[in-house]
Amino acid sequence: MSVDVAHVRPARPKDAHALATAYEEAWRGAYQGIIPHLDLERMIARRGPGWWARALQRRASVLVLDFQGDVAGYVTFGRCRVGRGPYRGEIFELYLCPTYQGLGLGTKLFEGARQKLREGRLHGLLVWALADNEAACDFYLRLGGKPIAEGAEGFGGTSLRKIAFAWR
Question: Which secondary structure element, helix H or strand E, spans residue 116, and what is its range?
Fold first, then answer.
């Protein structure tokens, strides 16, 4: 008999505190040394439990990776923000706490969001990642994402290059 110790499920209002913790841990792990320190700290401070509770009350599309009862990561997704085209769905954020990275759990989150997008008839998928976040770019490439566009994201007075990865 196999036991699934990690599964993807919809976020619930009671997950707000755990989502804030996962966000903080994941963003520090991913962006320290990439996003300027004060900008990163401000971003983390804005996404506390209250922010997550309000997002979940507004019925934001959020799935969590539940690892033996703990929120180990999350993914947010929805209709693609880039106008018309072949990409109807978008993953806005996909993050795992550093402790859970490298175990294939990010793929579970990715596939969970992709399935929900398909169920909503949002075929074709787009994900943006900062180019300096090599772990994220490598992750999306391993999942078969094709780099199709570049842009820039501003953080204070710093502009960082970002890459759009796409799946049909």
Answer: helix 105-119
Is the pTM here over 0.85, yes or no?
A: yes
Residue (of 42, 57, 47) closest to 17 by Cα position = 47
Measure CA 120 to chain center: 18
Sign of CA dihedral 63, 65, 70, 76: negative
The pairing of beta strand 146-155 with beta strand 158-167: antiparallel
DSSP 35: B
Which tokens hold the place of 109?
A: 């989150």
pLDDT in tens, 112-133: 999 999 999 999 999 999 999 9
Nearest alpha carbon to residue 87 among 164, 7, 4, 5: 164
Q: Please report the domains of the chain, with CATH numbers, ordered by start residue.
A: 6-126 (3.40.630.30)
Percentage of residues of the chain with pLDDT beyond 90: 93
d(CA 34, CA 133): 8
